[in-house]
Design brief:
The complex is a heterodimer of chains A (140) and B (290). Chain A is α+β, with helices and mostly antiparallel strands and 140 residues long. Chain A folds into two domains: 3-84, ATP Synthase, domain 1; 87-139. In chain A, 33% of the residues lie in helices and 41% in strands. Chain A is built from two helices and ten strands. In chain A, strands 2-1-9-8-5 form a five-stranded mixed β-sheet, with no helix packed on it. In chain A, strands 4-3-6-7-10 form a five-stranded antiparallel β-sheet. In chain A, helix 1 runs antiparallel to helix 2. The model of chain A has no long low-confidence stretch (mean pLDDT 91). Chain B has 290 residues and is an alpha/beta fold. Chain B folds into two domains: 4-18 and 248-289; 29-245, Pyruvate Kinase, Chain: A, domain 1 (3-Layer(aba) Sandwich), CATH 3.40.1380. Chain B is 60% helix and 15% strand. Chain B has five helices and six strands; from the N terminus they run αβαβαβαβββα. Chain B has helices at residues 4-59, 91-107, 118-127, 148-159, 210-289, and strands at residues 75-81, 112-116, 130-135, 163-175, 178-187, 205-207. In chain B, strands 3-2-1-4-5 form a five-stranded mixed β-sheet, sandwiched between helices. In chain B, helix 2 links the parallel strand 1 (75-81) and strand 2. In chain B, helix 4 (148-159) crosses helix 5. Classes of the chains: A alpha+beta (140), B alpha/beta (290). The A-B interface holds A 6, 8-13, 26-28, 38-43, 66, 68, 70-71, 75, 77, 79 and B 38, 41-42, 44-46, 48-49, 51-52, 55-56, 59, 144, 197-200, 202-208, 212-213, 216-217, 220, 223-224, 227.
């Protein structure tokens, strides 16, 4: 029997249902959550989340977020997230290029701006990676 | 007594007011539907964030983030969210009244405030509370990042130690006819009740560690709550405005009906008077002939 799981982005809910297994990119590396996991709080690195429910596996891309695991409930909370199925490699690559261009323009600007752009670039690259993985998956 | 021409002019004026209120009603209705969909989609995240923060407040022991530690001293900080514009009935007044009376009761008149929305700014200036930050002109498609400066100024005030409580006030959207003024304590984070949240006595496992995690989670919690408050207020505003404009249009219709009646009576009276004069004149002539 799975554990009630919810994947919520700040603009819209992404997934809600009972899951047998969840894989995410936590602060200290990739982690898998099975029912009965002990209480855990971690932030998430930009990347994909996999949820398995029944026979199905679904993938979501999260730009950031938090994971709260309780024995009877798993919550994944992200400011920005989307279903991997809606990702498009060309569009994701365009976003990487746009952020790279912004970084190049911002070379002389302050440290804080650079830090912000750096994390934005990290998100864009992770998103591109997710888009490409999604393309491979849908080929199989 | 008003002449027929005066009354007709009055009717014309009211008819053009009616056209405006009707147009505003349509616009508000369209915007309301969009705002309502947005808030419905965003609510689950904000509620879950609130739960997560309350869960930590309940069981977290490893690191007591300043947001989790109740304070004895200091004043309150109110984050007041209203609309920029009016013509929405008593919507903003209700929110501000609820917020102000809570703050007065807890902290007296010299509390601090972060105002989001022009009506909130005006209110804070009128009440002469200590306005630490204000924000007006948020777009309908507001993003969470746009609220960051407002949230940050509240965090700064709290961390400086003058403030012992951060309170959020907004108008919660229930449905077209009901908007509920809501006053919510954000900081110190109210712990989850005994029968909710983690049922264990043990703490969470924190990754990478408790302090680093909570220093990220707590601002994200505030962001989520303020973001929700803005979306709730937008949906409330457009529904209240739509209802207010519908009422205005229908009372304009009533006034027009009444004035038309008066106009007709006046017209009838003048016709009757003219007839009487003609008949009177004719009879006088006949009498003279005989």
């Amino acid at each position: 029997m799975g554990v009630p799981t919810r994947l919520l982005a700040s603009q819209k809910p992404l997934f809600e249902g009972d899951c047998e297994f969840i894989v995410l990119r936590g602060a200290d590396g990739d982690l898998g959550v099975l029912p009965g996991h002990s209480p855990l709080l971690t932030w998430l690195k930009p990347g994909e989340v996999m949820v398995r429910h029944g026979e199905r596996e679904e993938y979501f891309f999260l730009a950031d977020g938090f994971l709260e695991v309780l024995p009877d409930r798993v919550s994944v909370l992200a400011v920005n997230g989307e279903n991997s199925a809606s990702l498009n490699p060309q569009e994701a690559e365009g976003m990487v290029k746009a952020v790279e261009a912004a970084v190049a323009r911002a070379v002389s600007s302050g440290e804080q701006e650079m830090l912000r752009l750096q994390s934005e670039l990290e998100v864009a690259m992770a998103r591109l990676e997710a888009a490409e993985r999604q393309r491979h998956r849908s080929r199989d | 007594m008003a002449t027929l021409r005066d009354i007709r002019r009055h009717i014309k004026a009211i008819r053009s007011i009616e056209q405006i209120t009707r147009a505003m009603q349509m616009v508000a209705a369209a915007k309301m539907r969009r705002a309502q969909a947005r808030v419905a989609q965003a609510r689950p995240y904000a509620i879950a964030m609130d739960e997560a923060a309350r869960d930590v407040a309940k069981v977290g022991k490893e690191f007591r983030h300043p947001f989790l530690v109740p304070r004895e001293e200091g004043t309150g900080l109110l984050i007041l969210v209203t609309s920029d514009r009016g013509l929405a009935g008593s919507l903003n007044v209700n929110t501000m009244r609820a917020a102000h009376s809570y703050m007065l009761r807890r902290f007296g008149p010299r509390y601090q405030a972060v105002a989001i929305g022009r009506k909130a700014v005006e209110f804070c200036n009128r009440m002469q509370v200590n306005l630490v930050h204000h924000r007006i002109g948020l777009p309908d498609k507001v993003e969470m990042a746009e609220l960051r400066p407002s949230v940050e100024s509240a965090v700064r005030a709290y961390l400086q130690g003058e403030v012992r409580e951060v309170v959020l006030a907004y108008s919660q959207f229930k449905n077209l006819l009901t908007q509920v003024p809501t006053v919510q304590v954000l900081v110190p984070v109210p712990p989850a009740p005994a029968d909710q949240g983690p049922q264990t006595q043990g703490d969470y496992i924190y990754e990478p560690d408790a302090q680093a995690l909570l220093e990220k989670l707590m601002p994200a919690y505030l962001d989520s709550q303020v973001f929700r408050a803005v979306l709730e207020t937008q949906a409330s505003f457009y529904s209240a405005q739509m209802v207010a404009m519908r009422n205005a249009s229908s009372s304009a219709g009533d006034v027009i009906r009444e004035l038309s009646l008066t106009a007709n009576k006046v017209r009838q009276a003048s016709i009757t008077r003219e007839l009487m004069e003609i008949i009177g004149g004719a009879e006088a002539l006949q009498a003279a002939r005989r």
